[in-house]
Structure formats: C-alpha cells, structure tokens
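Retry 2 of 3 after timeout on previous attempt. Resubmitting structure tokens to design endpoint.
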C-alpha cells in the first residue's frame, strides 16, 4: 500500500517515519525546496508540491500515484478563498490520479465553543476563521463520490516540540481557568491515523481527543511545574468551553488511546 502525505510538518513527518517502520511505502511532500533534504534525511521519499497558486504550481505526478492521500497541510486564514481554491485543486488531482481513499486532518475548532459536550454527531458551529474554513474544506471533500474521505478532527496538539508547560508559563490572570481542555498527544495522532489507514471500514468522521478533560488551570499548572517553568495563575470560571468526546475511536475504529489520562501524563 502506498500512502502519500501532503504536508510533512510536525505531524506529517513523524507519521511518515512510523508508517515506513511498519512496511508501508510512503511519499512525503513539502512546498519548500529547503525542506527536501530534511525529509530525505529521515528516509522519507520527498516531493516538491506547491498548489498555492495556479501560476506557480509545482505538481509531481509520482507523488499522487498512491492508494491513500493524507492531507495534513495547515489552513491559511489570511486568504480563505485561496485556501479553499487549493482544496479544490487537490480534489481535482485526487480524481485525476484515481486515489480512492483520503484522510483530511481537521480540527475541533469546527465545533466552536458551545458550552456543552460534543461528539461526532454534533452539528458543528465554528466561530473562528480557521474553524469555518476547515468545515468548508471538509464538506467539499465529503461531497465527492469518486473517493471516500475520513475527517480527523484533532484536539490541541501536544508532544515533542509542543511542551504544554510553555503555553502559559509565567502568565497571570488567564481567563477561563475552569474550562476543560481537549488535547491529544502526537503518539495518538499517529496511532489513530494509522488505524484508519489500515481499516477496511469507511469512517466519515473521527474526533481525535484524549478521553480525559482536566481543567485548564489544573493541567497547565502541572505542565509548567513538570517543565520547571514559572507557574501561571488563572481566573476561576468557564465562560467558553466544550468537552469533545471521541465516540468513533472506540465504537468504529476500536482504538485504545496511548495517552488517556492527561494529568497522569503531565505529572
């Protein structure tokens, strides 16, 4: 099986390395020629792919010759129409090269802040620009009939290079201290994506969020202590919040989280 990863950044690059270690044929892409040697140094076959502008597009047909395409490039909020045009171009390439399975990395920002629990059956009501763009991109992909798309909505990302101890270290009077956190470790980002790649079940949507939801104050205080950084202070209360449940990870995917209890992990 050949898996191409469009966007080999913080998540895409370690995903590629993990898939390679399991015997998959993997192709990784970057928009920057400078990053090609970085991917190649990790034994990731690297391709220069740039669809940011029709006038300057760079497309390597070999990259799009694959069984599964993982779309893991970041949303560009400065020009929403340009981002959606890139999604349209990507859809055209998926059809042109007859790719049958697509995994689109999205975000729980699609749910907005409804001050309630949400799961995969909840109607999304995004409030941020990036959340609205991602939801539009999701709909564009899932409206296609020639290939299947699984949407993975990641929670807040933690892991190597994203130490949560740094997020609020030394800051004071941080609002919303009693709001629950919705986070996921890189190991589970990779694990869930690999499970979808290997699954024969068609899954439309997965929330990828750790099952535990400690308060913002409890988690980030513990994270700063663990990293030996200045302890932040929080204002009690929760004005905007959500608890994101990952029902389909267990129900459909039968996936067991590696980092289930965030407070245990961070202490």
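Retry 2 succeeded. Sequence:
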């Amino acid at each position: 099986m050949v898996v191409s990863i469009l966007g080999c950044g913080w998540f895409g690059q370690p995903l590629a390395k993990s898939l390679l270690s399991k015997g998959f044929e993997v192709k990784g892409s970057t928009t920057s020629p400078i990053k090609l040697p970085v991917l190649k140094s990790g034994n990731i076959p690297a391709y220069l792919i740039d669809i940011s502008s029709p006038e300057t597009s760079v497309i390597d047909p070999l990259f799009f010759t694959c069984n599964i395409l993982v779309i893991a490039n970041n949303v560009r909020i400065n020009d929403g129409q340009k981002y959606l045009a890139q999604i349209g171009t990507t859809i055209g390439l998926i059809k042109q090269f007859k790719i049958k399975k697509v995994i689109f990395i999205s975000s729980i920002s699609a749910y907005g802040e409804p001050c309630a629990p949400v799961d995969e059956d909840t109607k999304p009501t995004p409030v941020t620009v990036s959340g609205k763009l991602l939801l539009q991109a999701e709909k564009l992909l899932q409206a296609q009939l020639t290939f299947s798309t699984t949407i993975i909505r990641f929670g807040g990302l933690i892991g190597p290079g994203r130490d949560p101890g740094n997020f609020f270290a030394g800051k004071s009077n941080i609002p919303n201290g009693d709001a629950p956190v919705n986070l996921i470790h890189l190991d589970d980002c990779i694990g869930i994506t690999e499970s979808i790649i290997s699954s024969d079940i068609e899954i439309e949507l997965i929330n990828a969020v750790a099952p535990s939801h400690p308060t913002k104050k409890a988690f980030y205080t513990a994270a700063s202590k663990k990293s030996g950084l200045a302890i932040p202070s929080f204002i009690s209360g929760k004005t905007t919040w959500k608890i994101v449940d990952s029902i389909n990870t267990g129900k459909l995917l039968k996936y067991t989280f590696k980092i289930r209890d965030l407070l245990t992990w961070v202490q």
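Attempt log closed. The two ends are 39 Å apart (CA to CA).
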